[in-house]
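for the writeup, i need someone to sanity check this before i put it in the appendix. the sequnce is what the collaborator sent (i think, or maybe the updated version? ugh). structure was predicted straight from it, no edits. if anything looks off just tell me and ill rerun, i have time this weekend
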Amino acid sequence: MGTSGRVTLNDVAAASGVSRATVSFVLNDDPRQTISAATRDRVKQAARELGYVPHGVARALREGTSRVVVLNIDAGLEGAYSRSYVRGLDAELAAHDHVLLVRHGHHTPQSTRQVLDAIAPRAVIRFGETYLTGRELDDLGGGWRDGLAAHSALQLRHLVEHGHTHIAVALPDTESPLAAARSQFTGQAARNLDVATPGSFVTPLDRAACAEAVAAFLTGAPEVTAIAGFNDDVALRVLLALRDLNRRVPDEVAVIGFDDNGYGAYVTPSLTTVNVDAEAHGRLSARLALGLDTSGLRPPPARVVVRQSV
């Protein structure tokens, strides 16, 4: 193999004992060539054993511009927002005759290179980039108009408007790429609202451990009267923990979620949360990736879904 480490047609030809041209004819299934079944099987077996991946750039040059757009979603970014974002992205790309490929989890440089070589995509989108930075939304610096910063502030402001000046943030027990950004934006929002900077604590998935974590935090910070969940999953854990601790919601402690996963309406008390129209963000990302006009596609404002927990 060459210095790049990528298996080439020459490698497959050497392993199968045929010419490079024959390998190309077989792997491209060229109907104009008469090649024996035994030779075809030998070439295909060699390609499989070597891990040959067709070079997408070459294919794109033959067939024209690739109509595949790749979306990379890092682990820890799952939720209602990501699902509706993908729905909007997929629909907008389909409307412009493009196909969406979603990659989820931890991406190594090698795996990313293999995907890019095989597909030669029209564009690669990093999920959350526009939402986190406010890029292309006339809102640089963390999305203070339509992005994560604005929505973190909306969550905090709803609690402050209901008389809470000492607030805590409940975090998940798994690593999230958004945790640091959320902490920064919530702290800045607290300063803007002239209330104490919220402290934070982790909510374990285990029910008993979560109750212990909530009890320990409130014992150490008895002035806290409201808890803002990192997302609805975390906020629902907190609601259950407070019930287990015989703490009344919202009379003693108010709770608000984030990302409106839909389950908050089915608990008692029902969960107040923040809803974001991520489908519009997905459509916006699609147009940006394709170099299309984005005018008239500003996402609607996020909103607080008012229920019983605040």
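The first strand starts at residue 68 and ends at 73. The first helix runs from residue 9 to 16.
thx in advance!!
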